Amino acid sequence: MKIRDNVWASELGRAPIDVWLKMRATPFTNPPNARSLRKFEAGNVFEWIVSLILKRAGILQESQKWSSYQYEGLIEVTGKADFIAGGKPDIEKWKSESRSLGLPDVFLRVGDSILEYFEKNYPDGLAIMPLEIKSVSAFMFEALERNQQSSKIHRMQLFHYLKSDNHPFGSIVYICRDDLRIIEFLVENPSDTEQEYKNTIEILSAYHQENKQPPLEQPIVFDEDIGKFAKNFNVAYSPYLKMLYGFNDQNAFDNVYQPKVARWNRVMCRIRDGKNMTKLNEEVKQEITDAGFNIDELIPKFVPNKDEEDNL
Question: Mean pLDDT score of the chain, rounded to an integer?
Answer without folding.
Answer: 92
